Amino acid sequence: MSASASEPCACGCIAGVGARAHAIARALAGDDVDGAIALGLLDPAFAEDCVCAACAPECAQRSRDARQARLRALAARERYRERERRLQRRAEERAAQRAAPAAVAQAMPAETATTAAPPPRPALPSAAAAALARAKAKAAQRGND
């Protein structure tokens, strides 16, 4: 896409100093975000190079808004990718932790593995077991009455 000074901006401005800004505004008016990016929508010097002072304020604001929306979208994409990497790393760590006890058990001789096994965990936590015992005792008292 070429940006010539003779082509007017989307707002009708024909100032020659804002040719780049006009080309970006035309691209955005035509829903060509990729073209606007190629013309400099995301450039660090956007405010100085890509905004025409002679354009209507609404036109310049549309360009600024489009730039901000695209920057927010890019930042959100990066946050999403970082989250995916973090979740993948955690899943790999969990898998490694699960695999470690199995590898240790396989490495031990059979008689050592049975004697060194940790005691089985209770089916209920201690607080839940105590509550269940109280409920059973209360039910047994009602049955005797």
- Overall shape: it is elongated
- Share in β-strands: under 5%
Strand and helix order = HHHHHH
Largest sheet properties: none
- Helix fraction bin: 55-70%
- Kindly report how far apart the N and C termini lie: 93 Å
Q: Tally the helices.
A: 6
Helices and strands: which structural class? mainly alpha
Poorly predicted segments? 1-5
Number of strands: 0
Rg from Cα: 34 Å
**Residue-averaged pLDDT:** 82
Fill in the keyword field for this structure.
mainly alpha; 145 residues; 68% helix; disordered N terminus; 0% strand; elongated
Characterization of the model:
It is built from six helices and no strands. It has helices at 19-29, 33-39, 46-49, 57-107, 110-115, 126-144. The chain is mostly helical. Helix 1 (19-29) runs antiparallel to helix 2 and helix 1 packs across helix 4 (57-107).
Short description:
With 145 residues, this protein is mainly α. The chain has helices spanning 19-29, 33-39, 46-49, 57-107, 110-115, 126-144. Helix 1 (19-29) packs antiparallel against helix 2 (33-39) and helix 1 (19-29) crosses helix 4.
Produce the secondary structure layout.
Elements: H1 19-29, H2 33-39, H3 46-49, H4 57-107, H5 110-115, H6 126-144
